Amino acid sequence: MIRLPAGRRLNQIPAALRTTLGATTLRMYVFVIATGALTALALLLSPPATVGYDVGTLADRTVKAPRSVAFVSETLTEAERERAAAAVAKVYTRDPAVVASSRDRLAQAIAAIGRVRADAAQTRDQRITSITRLTEVAISPQLAPLVVDMTAAEWDAVSKEVDNALRTLYQPGIRPEQLDTARAAAATSLPPAWTDRQKAVGAELVRQFLEADVALDAVQTASAQQAARNGVLPVTVQVLAGEVVVRESTVVNALDVEKLRALGLVNTGIDWPGAVGLTIWAVLIAAVLALFMERHATEAWNDDRKMILVILSLLAVTVTARALVPGHTLLVYFIPFAAVAMIITVLVGGRTALATQIAGALHVGIMSGQVELVAYVLVPALLGMAAVRRATTAREFATGAVSVAVGNLGVVVSFALVGQSTDPLGAAQLAVAALVSGAGSGLLAFAGMAIFGHVFRITTVFELRELADPNHPLLRQLLLRTPGTYHHSLLVANLAERAAEVIGADPLVARVGAYYHDIGKMRNPSAFIENQTGTNPHDELDPMVSAGIVAAHVRDGLSLADRYHLPAMIREMIPAHHGTSVVKYFYQLAQQRGQNPDDASFHYPGPRPRTKEAGIVMLADGTEASVRSLAEKKPETIRVMVERIVSDRLAEGQLDECDLTLRDLQQIKDAFCELLLGVYHERIPYPEDRIARIPPASQAASDR
Questions:
Q1: Strand partners of residue 64
Q2: Per-residue pLDDT tens digits for 116-141
Q3: CB neighbours (10 Å) of residue 57?
Q4: Which residues pair with 246 in a beta bridge?
């Protein structure tokens, strides 16, 4: 738990969080939560093209399919399954105990009737009454006299044959729904030679003890029906682009809703499982993007402004896709998605642009379910990024537009051929959309670079070119007030630019940084030897005071940089070109005078260079000044001096914080030597008598 001390203000909470969690962890949390929440919200928004139709709803407008889609219809599949289940014959099982029980009860009834008939102690009427009261069988008062009046031979035949009649009726099996029919046919199972009263009594006995002996086997029947349902293949429905899915003023059925849902056009309320899934997806993509940038794009990761630009760029891609996918398939192809990648490439960096564009393409994929759109968002953007890697000229953006258009066409043609599309009009529309998207990407990237660079205060190549203009007010002042420093800066700029080129750094940043690295000397020009035309003021000063005056040009330079709003990458060159090194001349002078000087009083304030370009400017500044001081500027002495300066800076640890490798340093030294040897090459001495002399004006007038 994070606890704030008593009295801690709300504006101190970020500092407390950084202390508790660590700057990197806090940045990770903030980025993932902010990016995940914003993109999740964009993904969860209902697209304008969707409708709120449900089964039984009256359609208020006609809806056409924006694209072709095939899907498995649960409605039609379930209907087929029900038909298959209904066609399965029911499974019945016979129960032998039912027949045995019926026969046993019939035998008991016959025995009971026989006892009443044989009872001589009862009169006829008494026997009739007794028979109607038997519990073993129900004999009606109308039928009882027939039983009593039957001769012994007739009764004997009835008592013997009714069991056979009962078994005959049971032989095919009797289901519950067949029981009434079987009982109605009881008389037909009796011997035809019987008298009417025998048939009446025998049929009644058989009917009373006839029961259903065949029962429905619910378990086996359900199993057979389920097997039949499982055997039904899913019913696939094909919806073609332009097909009318729902007509206006018609009642929407279940199949219509399925078609709308497959096309992504239906909004039937909050889909909580889907909402949770999209939220998890958004947070996952944000976390992966954050991890990639933290590991592989450190410079951008540590810059809040660039991080905000990345978040907004990803959100722009997601919101645009959410608004147009689904429902406007053709319109999606007009959108210049590649412009986002091109802008981030120029303002933030190529690795960050690649990761952001991949994240945006994945969001488009989960919304559309189309691999083609994922490729359309990603592949052309890669070509555009390659074309505007440095963006030093407007021509690069034109090249980027052409590259994106070619990539768009390539994606469209590839998927059309793979899908064997036979729609010429649709293909032509997609081709036009691809070209428009390419042109729009180039224009939007060019405009976006300038606009977002200004809004987020990210230095662009065009701003650097303005700073490199000799007519810039600060450079004009440098030339007029400190001409020696100005020309020193020009040569340092040439050295730095060439070195940056050979090691793959940004030569324009190095050149502009070199132009402005010594602007602080304008505050006190005569304190620096290159601007001195007479006596040296340091001859009369204490070495420590002189060191402070010289080192002050760093502070003065930063003050001027703030006043003229120089970009951070250029401002960095002012303190970094000396780093934390010692003002050696005055330090050694103090030692020579026996003053036992304190190192801390003779150090430049720093910080050390943190970028390749700043490190190059440091080396170029020291090299140019040292070589200029050489009495003999021969190739051997120049190479030795260059080697010495670079080795000293490396040994002092001044280059520890910038990622210059030993290979880079060797290439820098070679570049310095090449350029300096060209500047200080030997010249042929011209004889005095070969130099044309200009006659005085008076002589020239008399000659005329």
A1: 244
A2: 888 888 999 999 999 899 899 999 99
A3: 17
A4: 63
Tokens of 225: 């029906």
27-44+271-454, which class in CATH?
Answer: mainly alpha
> Measuring CA to CA, which residue among 414, 366, 429, 317 is closest to residue 67?
429
Domains of the chain, residue spans: 27-44+271-454, 92-216, 463-679
Q: How far apart are CA 588 and CA 677, in angstroms?
A: 30
How far is Cα 276 from Cα 284, in angstroms, rounded to an integer?
12
Distance CA 522, CA 481 (A): 6
Residue type, position 137, single letter: V
Kindly calculate the radius of gyration of the chain based on its CA atoms and give it in whole angstroms.
50
Confidence at residue 40, expressed as pLDDT on a 0 to 100 scale: 92
Residues 509, 501: Cα–Cα separation, whole Å: 11
Q: Cα dist. 104→99, 136, 183 in Å?
A: 9, 11, 18
C-beta separation of 355 from 285 below 8 A? no
Classify 92 as helix, strand or coil: strand
Contacts of 10 by beta carbon, 8 Å cutoff, 6+ apart: none
CATH architecture of 463-679: Orthogonal Bundle (1.10)
As given in the structure block, the two tokens for residue 577 are 């070109």
The answer to whether residues 619 and 645 touch, using CB atoms and an 8 Å cutoff, is yes
State residue 554 phi and psi, 5-degree precision. Answer: -70, -50
- Grouping H, G, I as helix, E, B as strand and the rest as coil, residue 93 is strand
CB 239 within 8 A of CB 70: yes
Residue type at position 205: L
What the block records as the tokens of 146 is 């027939």
Pairwise CA distance, residues 560 & 325, whole Å: 51
Nearest to 400 by CA among 466, 360, 358, 447: 447
Spatial CA neighbour of 384 closest among 362, 407, 413: 407
- Scored b (16 or more CB within 10 A) or e, 28-43 reads bebbbeebbebbbbbb
For residues 519 and 557, the answer to whether their CB atoms sit within 8 Å is yes
Per DSSP, 595 falls in state -
Nearest to 358 by CA among 386, 382, 387: 382
Q: Which residues fall within 8 angstroms of residue 644, CB to CB, at 6 or more apart?
A: 626
Task: Supply the mean pLDDT for the chain.
Answer: 86
CA angle centred on 92, ends 91 and 93, rounded to 5° = 130
- 360 CA to centre of own chain: 5
Burial class (CB in 10 A: 0-12, 13-18, 19+), 377: buried
Q: Name the phi and psi angles at 676, rounded to 5.
A: -70, -35
For the stretch 425-441, pLDDT in tens is 778 888 999 999 999 99
Helix residue ranges, H only, 13-122? 13-21, 23-44, 74-86, 96-118
- Side-chain half-sphere exposure of 177, counting CA atoms within 13 A: 2
d(CA 301, CA 298): 5
Question: Please, which pLDDT band fits residue 4 given cuts at 50, 70 and 90?
Answer: very low
Instruction: Give the dihedral sign, CA 692/697/703/704.
Output: positive
Among 323-327, 393-397, 567-571, 696-700, top mean pLDDT goes to 567-571
User: How many residues comprise the chain?
Assistant: 704
